[in-house]
Amino acid sequence: MSSLEPSRRDTRLDPYIDQYADRTGSMTVSAVRALFAVANRPEVVSLAGGMPNIADLPLADLGASFDQLIQTKGVQAMQYGSGQGELFMREKIVEVMAEEAITANPDDVVITCGSQQALDLVTRIFIDPGDVILAEAPSYVGAMGTFNAYQAQIHHVEMDEDGLLPDALRQAVVALRAAGKAVKFLYTIPNFNNPTGITQPLERRREVLAVARELGVLVVEDNPYGLLTIEGEPIDAMRSMDPEVIYLGSFSKTFAPGFRVGWVLAPHAVRERLTIAQEAAVLSPPVFSQFAIANYLDNFDWRGQIATFRSMYQARRDAMLDGLSAHMPTGTTWTSPNGGFFVWVTLPEGLDSQALLPRAVNERVAYVPGTAFYADGFGSRNMRLSYCFPTPERIYEGTRRLGKAIADELEMHATFGLDTGEHRHTDRNLGPAPDVS
Amino acid sequence: MSSLEPSRRDTRLDPYIDQYADRTGSMTVSAVRALFAVANRPEVVSLAGGMPNIADLPLADLGASFDQLIQTKGVQAMQYGSGQGELFMREKIVEVMAEEAITANPDDVVITCGSQQALDLVTRIFIDPGDVILAEAPSYVGAMGTFNAYQAQIHHVEMDEDGLLPDALRQAVVALRAAGKAVKFLYTIPNFNNPTGITQPLERRREVLAVARELGVLVVEDNPYGLLTIEGEPIDAMRSMDPEVIYLGSFSKTFAPGFRVGWVLAPHAVRERLTIAQEAAVLSPPVFSQFAIANYLDNFDWRGQIATFRSMYQARRDAMLDGLSAHMPTGTTWTSPNGGFFVWVTLPEGLDSQALLPRAVNERVAYVPGTAFYADGFGSRNMRLSYCFPTPERIYEGTRRLGKAIADELEMHATFGLDTGEHRHTDRNLGPAPDVS
């Protein structure tokens, strides 16, 4: 990962340095966080963040309905709650999951403080130091931060333009087991993968599940963006085809992230452990937030709101794809997502997205370098661009600035003939089909 | 701990049993949770829970102010936030801590999902499996659940009626280190300790801190109840005397627990690690909750509300102490807290609080058996009674029912002459001064 290691000087000044747990060795400031300081400057078009645009929410009506909520249910909503999460919230979540063909029992749902905490709890109950978690190559930087915090070994599985390669999954599991490793689960984002935007078609999901079942590997399906499908309907969730799949969901993208309400749907025995782990972690997940979200789902047209979000993100995605077509130098390729927040760019051979970043920021555009999404140093030729937050005009302008930065970098390389040998790692990106734009 | 182990049958039925992390070995259903099912029956007076009574909050005005909050700041309040917590919230927290003589910088505060999560993060960054955490004998069941989840070894330090014994602390550290153990920190609740209600006077705090400093042991001060002091003013926090103390605070008792907002104040280097751990755990602590609480602190007389809570809890505490004086059989002793939520009862010799529980529930009163608050099997002659939630009349009636249950149990022992030898453990309770009522 492209983490910024605490500097040697800082480390020497920390009087507690000998006291920390071994797991803190992997706790470094994430590239994403370090970027925020830069990307937040108003003159910079940030294509780096993953913040949803929630400006379209009906604030006046929401305010009035919160007033009602406090006056009628305030004493319960502001009290401690269940460690597993409130039953009414779990029932609503079962309704939401039905939109992606999932049949579930509210008793098998555990509410979490955002789906980030769902990752934390699943990792906590399954991972001993050194255990292997399989993940797409590339995968979500925040999930890998959690996996590292529990000293997991992250092993990437190759993708093509349809997502995870079933044969690569099989080979990885067989090879890792032969090496004596405990492969605990596959972590996958089948819809609009973060960072690539790639989606697994239905048939590919079946194939991946078949391999996982055959080899006895648990599947953890992370699905924050599924309902934000732009064209057509969401593809059935993997969990809808296999009740053994552990499924992570969230209201952060379909409603609002500030309430920090996500969930895990898990087989009953696993759910039991997750609840106990949750009680030790936070006693109860945010209670008022659960009342607030259930209140929203009960009294507002949440499906209509999602449709509004979909068109809004469609316009932003189109602005980004149009901008990339117009401004990217030859040799640059990118993915064309049908939903979610992200486009994955592969730079012309010889370029390095981390080395390019200062030049890009100088042109007033920011992104996340691809290495952040690999646990093993790959991704130097890639970058993640997000189209979720800025306006379409700003996004288009951002791609123009980015195109200029890349062109300038290419020109410098042509002039000074920089050695491209050091970028040999990048031949792995997206494996057999690098050009998926 | 008096945990209910998952039954052998359940364990055999769990198809994932070989997959779980080692740390789940300590994850058992807590006695507190198992009790909720019983205690929630309306005919039972529950002296078991630790829920604050928040019925006195000004709901109508709160509702209107939430409406305003959403309309004016909704887009920020419902968005992702900072991993460390919002600056405005950390500034308000510094103001709240000043009430207990603490001088701090908002930059050294990390917001957590309730102070339970503060415990989780502190344990996460300091504890490797087998490391020792020192805690009062007895100590908070929820903290021990967290410590167990990280495979810490909990070592209890004796108390008297003024809290932790400095000499016992010194002896424990020396002996544990001589045995090759890594003693990572002392966890202490100096105000109205949960479960005993005992408070360390100022001089005792100084003595404990002196020993900790001399031996280089970190102190983690957990202070959820300090501002709920009944007579007189809160005693200065340990953190106010030593900036190296890691301090845990919470709005759960001074405002409302449903927002799940607590915090850690820590030395700068430690704060840095906590923030990184927090990002891996939940990305950002509940954002809307922080806006809601800051809004409350800005627009309501929160000091006046705490004064209201103090008189309300005083009436409840008095009802409990009056009831115990009136109804407890000879040989029963109890603590007299000056705040917080709990009274700690020591039963006449020969009685066992777990064995007594079914009889008590039959009399329609519930409590938490003392063994829940020890990591090492002690506490069988004790029970924790809470006076925070039921009305004074119900509390008084609860002590009457409890007195009858104890008297009946004593009579049965007198009749059948049960062997008291099996209760030898209990001679440790509260060490040299068992009768502190």
TrEMBL record, chains A, B:
Q: Name one GO molecular function term.
A: transaminase activity
Aminotransferase class I/classII large domain segment(s): 72-398
Cofactor needs? pyridoxal 5'-phosphate
InterPro entries, sorted: Aminotransferase_I/II_large, Class-I_PLP-dep_aminotransf, PyrdxlP-dep_Trfase, PyrdxlP-dep_Trfase_major, PyrdxlP-dep_Trfase_small
* Highest taxon of source: Bacteria
Nucleotidyltransferase listed as a keyword: no
User: Keywords on this record?
Assistant: Aminotransferase, Pyridoxal phosphate, Transferase
Question: Can you tell me which family this protein belongs to?
Answer: Belongs to the class-I pyridoxal-phosphate-dependent aminotransferase family.
Fill in the subunit field for this protein. Homodimer.
Protein name listed in UniProt = PLP-dependent aminotransferase family protein
Q: Which organism is it from?
A: Propioniciclava sinopodophylli
